[in-house]
Amino acid sequence: MTTSILCIYPEVYSTKIAVSEDEKIIYFSEIDHQKESFILLENIVEQLPYRRDAIMDKMRDDNVDIKSIQYVVAEGGLLRPCESGVYAIDKFMVGDLLEGVGGEDVVNLGGLLAFTIANMLRIKSFVVDPASVDERNELAAFSPHLSLRKKSLFHAMINKYLSRCYAKSVNKNYENLNIVFCHVSDRNVSVAAHQNGRVIDVNQAYQGYGPMGFYEIGTVPASDILDLLFKKHYSKDELLRLINKNASFYSYLGTNSVDTIISMLQNNDKKARHITEIMAYQIAKEIMSHYVTLDGKIDVIILSGKIFSDNRFFKYLSKRIENLAKIECYPEDCTFDAMVYNVLRVLEGEIELKTYC
């Protein structure tokens, strides 16, 4: 019997959806949302009804057989620290996503949309490898001040999925490899050290620190943030917009669209080239730091993200890290493949479905 899964992936001003039959994606759509629709909303959670209705209307318009869908899945959001795996969405998880217990971010809408639509269809809903997966060792998790906590918030689902894909391609077990994994999303960058199947160190990609991304600012001096707060009287919302939306490429180029930036690089735009070289430099530094994390024993460096489809950016980065280890690159978007793969692993009894908290 065929297993039909609806996959949901919200982005800042769009929602991507896909339907699979077993492991094959048979339907895909990207629903664009007008920025004006969100202007009057005080927080991201208030977008939930609008996006839910847009998803259902789009599937009806495209004649998707909604009644055949058996499961709904999304990437996990900014939740409490948890283990890697597939989780059933329950009232505790919904409560934490609504509250923004790990931070307010559009990624939280994935689980909420999956839960809401699954309830409408009277089927089960899941999240895969929440962004808050925390497998760090004591050295990596240590905070220099007791009142501050270094969080593990990164692209856990893509990290785990592509690491397993790579391991299978070389006839090895993921649990037996040392991997430095760099994912450059359309928003931010995470660089993780995988050792024996666990991410023992990673930068806080969401609302945190590390290399600059296309939307998000990455690491900045704490003293400068304090100046914005107390000298220029920025509000919390203004600071979050600066950190998460109006920084980096947008600040210098007036755009943070990866497609636009790739086009600018192809047209030899000097300013775009300069900023992307700086981004590659920052990412290379973060990757090289994990030589220490993994005691100099690195089997492979995996790079993933659309930006790597541009050979210029790949060269900017690879020339700085090529002596560290073998490099593998995955520029294709495999978000929905990762979701489907993990749900099928649960349904086939390969891994157990986990309960949140």
The averaged pLDDT comes out at 94
Strand order of the largest sheet: 3-2-1-4-6-5-12
Low-confidence stretches: none
Percent helix? 25-40%
Order of helices and strands: EEEHHEEHHEHHEEEHHHHHEHEHE
The quaternary organization reads as single chain
How many runs of DSSP E, i.e. beta strands? 12
Fraction of residues in β-strands: 15-25%
Termini separation: 33 Å
Alpha-beta classification = alpha/beta
User: What sort of overall outline do the alpha carbons produce when their principal axes are compared?
Assistant: globular
- Helix count equals 13
* Rg calc: 20 Å
Major pleated sheet: 7 strands, mixed
List keywords for this structure.
5-stranded mixed β-sheet, 357 residues, globular, 19% strand, alpha/beta, 7-stranded mixed β-sheet, 13 helices
Please sum up the structure shown.
Helices cover 39% and strands 19% of the residues. It has 357 residues and is α/β, with parallel strands linked by helices.
Structure write-up:
It contains 13 helices and twelve strands. The protein is of the alpha/beta class. A seven-stranded mixed beta sheet has the order 3-2-1-4-6-5-12, sandwiched between helices. A five-stranded mixed beta sheet has the order 9-8-7-10-11, sandwiched between helices.
Secondary-structure topology with pairs:
Layout: E1 4-11, E2 14-21, E3 24-32, H1 36-39, H2 48-61, E4 71-75, E5 86-88, H3 91-99, H4 108-121, E6 124-128, H5 138-141, H6 156-169, E7 178-184, E8 189-195, E9 198-202, H7 222-230, H8 236-244, H9 248-253, H10 258-266, H11 270-293, E10 300-304, H12 311-321, E11 327-330, H13 335-347, E12 354-355
Parallel strand pairs: 1-4, 4-6, 5-12, 7-10, 10-11
Antiparallel strand pairs: 1-2, 2-3, 5-6, 7-8, 8-9
